[in-house]
Write a structure and sequence with these properties.
With 450 residues, the chain is of the alpha+beta class. The chain has 21 helices and 6 strands.
């Protein structure tokens, strides 16, 4: 059995546990909120202008308020979902998994006929596929500079689209192998407008791969593990072969064991452990920004490489600046969408606190020897001589420290507060798994401002 066939076999299994389906529902709602919040971003508008204005027709809904083809819908809505970097992280896939999966599924879904149950089933299939593919190439893929959202995201999400289209196991495997040819996207683009487009690009890739498979397109069956295939070109560490234990039978879905991590802060996830650590220390020790003399952040190599803007000049760079995120967290006691507008960055980027923040990374040897992901450590020196330190392995929002109901609703209103009856919309979305169709989602597409 090829790796693609094994993944297809695993991902076509039904997922019936209440926990998995509840977590999937919450991830989908979180992504929808981020998509609405990102529809006015310049990255989304640029993608819309480039592709939706070229005469393409169709009935797929765009979050900007128009209709177009499924391909354009995936591009625009995926970009919007990732535009503000508020969408979830998924460590097994090294990806922003949901920002690719949800827009891709909605692009091909008939809102009048597809049930909420079918949407959740397909989402879970795509998430599992992203995990299996990420596990196959390993963390070295991400550390080498590949953006997992657009590489692993393209391939894994193709399995989700195949599921929603009703493709069988054999066709799903072909969908996966076709999607390998779409995998692309480098982390060198972080902090630019093209970065959120990676999510839109991956959603489009997944839709196209599934449609090609449905039409009968063929690709090399062992392209994931074979010579000149995905692993040999993208793994980053050629000493590590593709793990064959992906075919092992498991009882728990990846969303139950690793989970997706909805973001508490609307910025690069590489900052979150440090920001959470700072907020922990502030609560425990009662200091304020004016008391801080210096901040040292120790992070992983890949995280260090992601954060390349110590003095950001716009909101995109600010989301990828440890210095800016730390300074704003210290000043405000939290981070919100309001901290990452052009006006906010122009006002706050000159804060003297930015120059008090230094960032270090673990060595390659330390990361190689470690059995598990190393913690991020923040050390704060206060002007009164105290030295405070916090260490975190997990960010707020994941399975280890899950959001409360109030956290989830608060984030939804932060993203969708401009919508009429946002609270009522949220309540309706909570019943997604029992919804006979997706009509309740239409208001998120019909209420776009111009």
């Amino acid at each position: 059995m090829t790796v693609a066939a094994a993944i297809a076999q695993i991902c076509t299994r039904p997922v019936t546990t209440a926990k998995a389906r509840l977590l999937a529902r919450d991830a989908i709602i979180d992504t929808l909120a981020c998509m609405v919040a990102g529809r006015e971003d310049i990255s989304t508008k640029t993608v819309f202008e480039a592709f939706a204005q070229t005469g393409s027709t169709g009935e797929a809904l765009l979050v900007t308020g128009e209709k177009s083809s499924p391909i354009v819908a995936a591009l625009v809505n995926g970009t919007a979902a990732h535009a503000l970097d508020y969408d979830d992280n998924f460590l097994p896939g090294m990806s922003h998994a949901s920002a690719v999966i949800v827009p891709a599924l909605l692009a091909v879904a008939d809102f009048e006929k597809v049930s909420g149950t079918q949407l959740i089933d397909a989402y879970l299939a795509g998430l599992q596929a992203q995990a299996l593919i990420g596990n196959g190439v390993g963390q070295a893929h991400y550390t080498a500079g590949w953006h997992g959202t657009s590489t692993i995201g393209s391939i894994g999400t193709a399995a989700a689209v195949a599921h929603l289209l009703g493709l069988n196991e054999e066709a799903t495997a072909r969908t996966i192998t076709i999607a390998v040819s779409y995998a692309s996207g480098t982390k060198g683009q972080f902090g630019t407008l093209i970065k959120p487009f990676h999510a839109g690009m991956a959603a489009r890739n997944a839709v196209e791969a599934a449609l090609l498979a449905k039409a009968g397109m063929q690709a090399r069956p062992d392209i994931l593990e074979g010579a000149q295939g995905f692993h040999s070109l993208f793994a980053g560490d050629q000493r590590r072969g593709w793990k064959t234990d992906i075919m092992a039978d498991t009882t728990d879905h990846i969303i139950e064991t690793a989970g997706v991590m909805p973001k508490k802060h609307p910025c690069c996830g590489s900052t979150h452990l440090i920001v959470d650590g700072i907020l922990d220390l502030m609560r425990e020790n009662g200091f304020i920004a004016e008391d801080v003399e210096s901040v040292e952040a120790l992070v992983g190599i890949a995280n260090y490489r992601n954060l390349t803007y110590p003095q950001p000049v716009d909101e995109m760079q600010a989301r990828f600046s440890m210095q800016y995120c730390v300074a704003r967290a210290l000043r405000a006691g939290h981070l919100s969408l309001a901290d990452f507008t052009p006006q906010a960055v122009q006002h706050y980027a000159g804060d003297t606190l930015l120059s008090c923040v230094t960032m270090l990374s673990y060595s390659a040897d330390e990361e190689r020897i470690a059995q598990d992901k190393l913690p991020h450590v923040v050390t704060i020196k206060l002007r009164d001589g105290r030295v405070l330190r916090a260490s975190r392995n997990y960010a707020a929002g994941g399975l280890q420290e899950p959001f409360t109901d109030a956290d989830r609703f608060g984030k939804f209103t932060d993203c969708c507060g401009a919508l009429d009856n946002a609270a009522g919309i949220y309540e309706n979305l909570l019943a997604l798994d029992s919804a006979k169709d997706l009509k309740t989602l239409k208001i998120l597409f019909n209420s776009a401002t111009s």
